[in-house]
Amino acid sequence: MKFNCPLIVVTDIEVSRRFYEDILGQKVKYDFGENVVYEGDFSIQLKAHFSNMLKIDEEEIKYNSNSFELYFEEEDIEAFVEKLNKNKNVKYIHDLIEHPWGQKVIRFYDPDMHVIEVGESIKSVVKRFLKEGMSVYETAKRTQHPIEFVERVLKDKLS
């Protein structure tokens, strides 16, 4: 068996599409009208369609559970946060923070109160630390990644 993709239920497919495509830059892989699959291999599905398939009332579908999140990575997290801040409809869970391993992340809700996390890639974190003058060893220790990974990022950075 192979896991295919997560699917989140949305109340308004057009509102959610604008959010995922315009704010998060996601590209549509398949558009089935009531179900949209993105290239990142997650789907949004209209609440009415989902409840009909499960043979349950729409009221049984709950939002704002804070029990899972969709995670995205961004190479330039500060530019993304600047773009995000221009959208007055975004409800933040927290502003940009830096985890102990150095990764900067921000969390907020999508229009249906699903948790969204956008973090800088670990590769970006490694590049930032090396640019700031940390050694390969210090960077590996701080990011909790193998020295070989940090050296590979350093090599890729120079070529």
UniProtKB/TrEMBL annotation:
Query: Which Gene3D superfamilies does the record match to this protein?
Result: 2,3-Dihydroxybiphenyl 1,2-Dioxygenase, domain 1
Give the Pfam families listed for this entry: Glyoxalase_2
Q: Record's InterPro entries?
A: Glyas_Bleomycin-R_OHBP_Dase, Glyoxalase-like_dom, VOC_core
Instruction: Identify this protein by name.
Output: Uncharacterized protein
